[in-house]
Amino acid sequence: MTPLSGRVLATAVLAVALAGCGAGRGDEAAAPARTTSTAPPAHSSGEPVRPLERSVPVGLRIPSIGVDTPVMRLGLAADGTVEVPPVTDDDRAGWYRHSPTPGQRGPSVVLGHVTVGAHGDGVFRHLARLHRGDRVEARLENGTTARFTVTAVRTVAKADFPTEDVYGDVDGPELRLITCGGPRVGEEYRDNVIAFAELDPARPTGS
């Protein structure tokens, strides 16, 4: 399926905020963020980056926070919001299949849990610890790896989810990583943690 434009995505998922991150064990909380920004994401450079060919992501690696996960495909839930990965003991990240694939022009969106109920920690439990300049690698179905650099990390209230910043049109290939964060409110977390990243100008490499 051809990915929707960022503008259409923003319209289609106005109410999107990653819900259902799963309640963790009673003494668990989201990993504290080293930095929290409420400003729009900063871009690393004005240098144009050549987009990659469309190829579905099959894996994601973030060395600085110990993430190395398979990636599943996600669509829309019955209420029109973005699906989230199932709450299981083999927790995985999920790529929103109506967004560009990693490395295509536009915002490619990947979601993951911070906790997965009785199973404990989720795959994105340390997402808030990312720093600007950290690396993210998306392994693609065609055997190449798209490499990204984090440009900003934001913690925002779910009620104020920045839909346009996450799903809106951008000039180059970018990546959005989303999970829950902040204090727990009942069985849910109050906030979302969003990491913004840009494709590195270097050519992709084989896996």
Automatic annotation (TrEMBL):
**Bias (Low complexity) ranges:** 29-45
* Pfam families, alphabetized: Sortase
Name of the featured protein: Lipoprotein
Q: Where is the signal peptide?
A: 1-19
What ranges does the record give for the region Disordered, renumbered to this chain? 25-55
Q: Which NCBIfam families match?
A: class_F_sortase
Q: Which organism is it from?
A: Streptomyces ambofaciens
Gene3D superfamilies, per database record: Sortase
Keywords from the UniProt entry: Hydrolase, Signal
Q: Which PROSITE patterns match?
A: PROKAR_LIPOPROTEIN
